[in-house]
Amino acid sequence: MFGGKLPLAWLQIKREKTRLAVALAGIAFADILMFMQLGFRDSLYYSNVRFHNSLQGDIVLISPQSSALLSLKPFSQRRLYRALDLPAVQSVHPIYLDYTSWKNPVTGIPRNLLVVGINPTANILKIPGLEQNLDNIKLPDVVLYDRASRQEYGPIVADFTQGKIVTAEVQRRLIKVGGLFTLGASFGADGNLITSDVNFLRIFPFRQQGLVSIGLIRLKPGTNVETVAKDLRNYLQSDVKVLTKQEFIDQERQFWASSTAIGFIFTLGTIMGFIVGTVIVYQILYTEVADHLVEYATLKAIGYEHKYFLVVILQEALILAILGYLPGFAFALFLYQKAREATLLPVFMSFARAIQVLILTIIMCFISGAIAVRKLRSADPADIF
Fold it and tell me: Which residues of 113-150 are buried (b: 16+ CB within 10 A; e: fewer)?
């Protein structure tokens, strides 16, 4: 049925080339809008859990008052070390996190970044460039700098790779960059530092030793993570929250998706792109139906059913969807690249998103076509002639 009517749908579409160009431009614009909103939304979720994914452990302890990485509350590390009482626990590792001001060594302009304090004798973070530089942060006032931080922090990476001694003021304390790692900026932090737990407490003298931000627990091989997490919840007091690593990641994503305006805005932007595209395609298809109303009425008079016209219009909608999607996809790739260069955020095209927007585009055009063809249902051939 589709094969026999497809030439009619195509011939009608290409008859008015200006109208076709306008339709494709409108669909491409709607697709670009959806691509950008979904791209930034996924970038938001991905960038804010990169640290979580880097944790080399099975279970995470945080304060019950903590909802996301940017608002972690400290808790006593004694709760963490109590976990060693369980036979399935292999080791525990305290992690300190806090945000502070980094003063650009060239301009002197301060800018906040995230500082992570760990025990350098244990490699608990799977981050490129970290393992080979752990010994460096054992030295006093030495930190590792994230090479993927924004340029506003200064030419740190360029100076360090040239062999220059790089120093900067952090929390009114002069520190030295002893190495580079690669984590990346996020919506919560434009830059990152990693140092030892001792250096962390030097940078943040108001932080009491033993009050940690995250407790990481490694289990013995072959242990069921869910079972041990349940046992820890029963064993530890209620002033600490026990999460599996995946639950820790999911909590962060849920926070940005539902507890902040950013996730809602990106979702709303996607919906608005869908609505805009639907309206544009509806106007084009409605005009197409109106221009050929006499021809459709003739076919209706000689016995063609409404289903026939619906199929033709939906085929036109499908053709418009595919032809409009292609330039929208290509331009979205270009904008993704520019967005990565400008923000250093992981804005990449994924196969799942490409298919998702294609499906949304087809649905968008089908809805427009189904609404536009309603004009034919009430059209009486006798009235037209």
Answer: bbbbbbbbeeebbebebbeebbebbeeebbbbbbbbbb
